């Protein structure tokens, strides 16, 4: 009996071993075949690791996807580099001329993003999925429809709303700074300011971020896109890393319940406007009108969520980075303040048009977004085979191409001493756009560039004319980025010291 059992378990042991060997052999052959993709095409590539491709450090949470792409950029040379996003061959573009070709000249081959390829339009409730992920004709229609919401004339009409928000911000900082030390969590301030300005400009909503400890909009904002939560981090990262897996598993780019919650707020605002016959010609009104003419699937209201997230995710971080650099560079802070005070009127107002013309302020903002490109890489997917002439390569349909802004913006070939914060490098406008791409370029570039610049400059003007920003005992020496997600975010709260300059508040 015991002999039979032991021969049986021996047999099972052999069976398991042979199954394991077969699986290992198949896996080896599979990865050998996949990973020979760039070698077969005689394109330089970075050696991948089975299962992870070139993304192991991302999965080990050593760095986020953007930092990994920048690392791949730094460690390679040449115009293009073959990489592997898990098992998917992709290209990292290192040459400015090829960047121009992909983003503008041959847009018809590269008009969509990889992230959109992972959105299952039939399953996801957000219909057109917003500009970021929508594709082809849906994207074209939506972009044309919503562009007026970002136009100069529309933005001009919201100047008084923005002025209102900056006043509330200054008041909040005065109230919230630690009474003894003057310390404040600037990231929290910037997040409140971004939500307030975005909600009022695009939706005519008052989110009450400054009158309550935590407003419902702040909660929704945190939950929608919080990649610090493990599950959300996986969902969001997979949208970029593997659209196919993302689609197969039905992963949500934005948190479903929070999306519904935000849309409910928007829906109520819309109904109230209809009841009061109110019209502001803002994003909400444009969507309201579009709903009547749109004959696609899904609910157009859902793409308001994307605007809400895109606004808060980018601006809060960039403003935090601005303040961090102001603290580190006291001389630059003084110079900026002096420039802004020169255009301040006797009644303390600072006209928005004059503010936007200030040269040094312009250079400062440019330098902050060079060093902290909050959306740190551009991503496109090849729609139809494309022949690259130098080096010769047929980029096949379905291949993702990436431009690492974090890589290019720190390339010493374009930016001498790239780690030195130096706004002067932008003084003579000599930097070519193909190596300075914080808002992307071409038909798919950020529609909110102008708006963002106004919001950032208004914030800086109000803060600089009312406070002196200095280090606190809790200010970190170095900005460290969060290792999850795909935008650049500080890994921790950012504290600094803000002492009122005088008792008079700047108005706009
Ligand atoms: C400093 C702030 C911002 C930065 C650095 C930034 C950067 C970017 C970048 C790099 C892209 C990709 C462009 C490309 O692929 O060529 C983008 C796209 C986009 N951004 Fe921004 N952005 C900012 C603020 C905003 C704000 C405030 C909003 C909304 C209110 C917004 C909405 C969008 C949308 C909807 C897209 C997708 C456009 C499309 O595919 O047609 N962004 N942004």
Automatic annotation (TrEMBL):
Pfam families to which the protein is assigned, alphabetical: p450 (PF00067)
Top-level taxon in the UniProt lineage: Eukaryota
Cofactor requirements of the protein: heme
SUPFAM superfamilies referenced in this protein's UniProt entry, alphabetically: Cytochrome P450 (SSF48264)
Alphabetic keyword roster: Endoplasmic reticulum, Heme, Iron, Membrane, Metal-binding, Microsome, Monooxygenase, Oxidoreductase, Transmembrane, Transmembrane helix
GO MF entries: heme binding; iron ion binding; monooxygenase activity; oxidoreductase activity, acting on paired donors, with incorporation or reduction of molecular oxygen
Transmembrane segments: 12-31
Bilayer topology annotation: Peripheral membrane protein
Localization terms from the record: Endoplasmic reticulum membrane; Microsome membrane
Family matches, as InterPro entries: Cyt_P450 (IPR001128), Cyt_P450_CS (IPR017972), Cyt_P450_E_grp-I (IPR002401), Cyt_P450_sf (IPR036396), Insect_CytP450_Detox (IPR050476)
Oxidoreductase is among the record's keywords: yes
Residues binding heme: 446
CDD domains: CYP6-like
An example Gene Ontology CC term for this record: endoplasmic reticulum membrane
Family membership: Belongs to the cytochrome P450 family.
Name of the molecule in the record: Cytochrome P450
Organism for this UniProt entry: Henosepilachna vigintioctopunctata
Upper taxonomic lineage: Eukaryota, Metazoa, Ecdysozoa, Arthropoda, Hexapoda
């Amino acid at each position: 009996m015991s002999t039979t059992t032991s021969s049986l378990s021996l047999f099972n042991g052999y069976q398991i071993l042979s199954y394991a060997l077969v699986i290992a052999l198949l896996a080896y052959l599979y990865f050998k075949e996949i990973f020979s993709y760039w070698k077969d095409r005689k394109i330089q590539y970075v050696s991948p690791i089975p299962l992870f491709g070139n993304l192991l450090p991302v999965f080990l949470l050593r760095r986020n996807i953007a930092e990994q792409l920048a690392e791949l950029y730094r460690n390679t040379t040449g115009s293009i580099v073959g990489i592997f996003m898990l098992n998917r061959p992709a290209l990292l573009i290192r040459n400015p001329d090829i960047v121009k070709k992909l983003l503008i000249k041959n847009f018809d081959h590269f008009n969509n993003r990889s992230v959109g390829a992972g959105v299952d339009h039939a399953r996801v409730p957000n219909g057109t999925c917003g500009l970021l992920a929508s594709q082809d004709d849906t994207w074209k229609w939506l972009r044309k429809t919503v562009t007026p919401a970002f136009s100069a004339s529309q933005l001009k009409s919201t100047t008084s709303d923005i002025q209102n928000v900056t006043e509330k911000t200054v008041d909040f900082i005065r109230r919230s700074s630690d009474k003894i030390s003057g310390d404040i969590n600037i990231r929290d301030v910037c997040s409140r300011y971004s939500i307030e300005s975005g909600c009022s400009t695009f939706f005519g909503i008052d989110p009450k971020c400054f009158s309550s400890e935590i407003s419902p909009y702040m909660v929704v904002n945190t939950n929608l896109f919080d990649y610090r939560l493990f599950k959300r981090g996986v969902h969001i990262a997979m949208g970029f890393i593997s659209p196919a897996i993302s689609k197969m598993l039905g992963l949500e780019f934005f948190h479903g319940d929070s999306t519904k919650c935000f849309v409910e707020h928007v829906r109520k605002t819309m109904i109230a406007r209809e009841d009061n016959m109110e019209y502001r010609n803002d994003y909400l009104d444009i969507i309201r009108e579009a709903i009547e003419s749109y004959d696609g699937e899904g609910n157009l209201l859902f793409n308001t969520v994307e605007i809400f997230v895109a606004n808060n995710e980018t601006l809060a971080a960039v403003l935090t980075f601005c303040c961090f650099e102001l603290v580190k560079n006291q001389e630059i802070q003084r110079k900026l303040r002096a420039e802004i005070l020169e255009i301040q009127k006797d009644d303390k107002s600072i006209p928005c048009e004059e503010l936007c013309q200030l040269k040094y302020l312009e250079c400062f903002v440019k330098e902050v977004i060079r060093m902290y490109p909050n959306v740190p890489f551009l991503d496109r997917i090849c729609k139809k085979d494309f022949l690259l002439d130098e080096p010769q390569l047929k980029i096949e349909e379905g291949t993702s191409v990436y431009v690492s802004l974090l890589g290019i913006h720190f390339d010493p070939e374009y930016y001498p001493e790239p780690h030195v914060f130096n706004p002067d490098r932008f003084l003579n406008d000599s930097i070519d756009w193909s190596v300075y791409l914080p808002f992307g370029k071409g038909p798919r570039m950020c529609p909110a560039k102008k708006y963002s610049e106004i919001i950032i400059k208004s914030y800086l003007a109000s803060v600089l004319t009312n406070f002196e920003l200095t280090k606190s005992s809790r200010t970190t020496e170095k900005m460290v980025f969060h290792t999850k997600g795909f935008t650049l975010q500080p890994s921790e709260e950012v504290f600094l010291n803000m002492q009122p300059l005088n008792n008079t508040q700047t108005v706009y």
